[in-house]
Amino acid sequence: MSKLLKRLVPVLIIGLAIGTFVYMKNSKPQQPPVQVSEKVWSVDALTVQLQSISAVQTLYGEVESNALVQAAAPISAVVEKVAVLPGDEIKKGQLLVALSNQDVSILLQQAQADVADARAQLQLQKLTIEANHQRLEHEQKVLGLKQEALQRAKSLLKKNLASQSAVDTAKEALVRQEYVVVGADLAVKQSDAQLSQLQARLQKALTALEQAKLNQQRAVVKAPFAGRISSVGVSVGDRVNTGAVMVSFYSLDSLELKAKLPANSLPQAQQALDNGQPLQAYIDSDNAQRVSMPMKRLAGQATTSGVDAYFAVPNELHQKRPGELMEIYLQGRVQSQVAAVPYSAVYGNNRIYVIEDQRLQSMQVSLQGEVMHNGKLQALVSAPQLQNGMKVLVTHLPNAINGLKVAEVE
Fold it and tell me: CATH for 102-216, among 2.170.270.10, 1.10.287.620, 3.90.1520.10, 1.20.1250.20?
């Protein structure tokens, strides 16, 4: 009996444990089933408005001056006065730089002395020419007398009234006189040639004198027009060489902006210039006013990246300096049936998402340029199925796909 109990006790314990486990399992609380709901993305949307808009193109350019004057030293001299500094506004006729008057006066006096010397030599040569002409006339008269003497000697010889030696003496005198006439004629011709040389020397001296007077004027640099000083390359007391640039300045009206125009925009820009209706660019100034900058001309040479276009800088932007960089917006041709949307609404340059029944639907579009709106660039898009009143997704969702459920934020 005891052996049987010993065998039943473990069985009873195991059975009790199993029963307890089954009871506890069946009596535990039941979890309600999990309800899975679809996520809704809160987004901003834009109502489509199809319209005709002039596309704009962002260009980056550099301010230049087409009339930069570099005043150089006309002679080697000492700088006596410097009246301006870089960046100064100047008025027409204002003194800029002056060289030493002593250096200029010495050269002017030398030129005047050369002119006086050339004139004196010319006057002396004229007297010499007059004397040579008188001598030639005299020697020619003597030659005529010698010829007559020879004829008389020959006539007397025929009449046996003179000897042959008398005839020979007359011939010898005639030959000598002919030689004297040749010398006198040569002296006249030489004096005429020397007169031409002295006249040329006088003209050269007069030219040098005019140059000296011109250098005297140029030694005092005055502004030929109102403008701004670009740079000053000398100081008081400097000795400058001939041709050294002393001061550079430019007119405020000469400022223009040089910007690279893409090659695909060249035909339109050239046609507009030929028609007398140049394309217009503009810039938003500091006071929130739009300043227009018409295109003046196109460069004569192009590169593979485009051609340089030059735009007028109006009076409102005269504070600009050469070398300053500017961002401008070039207005192109008018695009019809296009919608302006933020760039955040464009996916991959050719796709936008339209919201229909709180679901996203992708739409293929074509980019037609860009436009400035409230100080920000927006893309101009067009598509055959794009219509007024459609809602376009503006919030850029990295996970945007067709059918994604969204809720527009009011």
Answer: 1.10.287.620
Return the SS3 of 115. Answer: helix
The CA distance from 276 to 24, in Å, is 97
Give the separation between CA 326 and CA 319, rounded to whole angstroms. 13
Residue 187's H or E segment, with its range, is helix 164-218
70-80 pLDDT, tens digit each:
999 999 999 99
How far, CA to CA in Å, does 282 sit from each of 56, 62, 252, 317?
Answer: 10, 15, 19, 11
| Residues 161-203: tens digit of each pLDDT | 767 777 777 778 778 877 888 877 887 788 778 888 888 888 9
Residue in 370, 265, 369 with CA at minimum distance from that of residue 307: 265
**Maximum alpha-carbon separation in the chain:** 219
- The answer to whether the beta carbons of residues 364 and 349 sit under 8 Å apart is no
CA distance 49 to 378: 13
CATH number of 51-65+252-408: 2.40.30.170
Question: Which residues, 6 or more positions from 20, have their beta carbon under 8 angstroms from its beta carbon?
Answer: none
Strand, helix or coil for residue 311: strand
pLDDT surpasses 80 at 26: no
For the chain, what are the domain ranges? Answer: 51-65+252-408, 68-100+220-251, 102-216
- Is 102 exposed, middle or buried (CB count within 10 Å of its CB: 0-12, 13-18, 19+)? exposed
Q: Which of 305, 313, 311 is nearest to 265 (CA)?
A: 305
pLDDT, residue 35, reads 59
Out of 2.40.50.100, 3.40.50.300, 3.40.50.150, 3.40.109.10, select the CATH number for domain 68-100+220-251.
2.40.50.100
Residue 99 has pLDDT above 90, yes or no: yes
pTM above 0.85, yes or no: no
Candidates 305, 251, 259; CA nearest to 279 is 259
Contact present, 393 and 43 (Cβ < 8 Å): yes
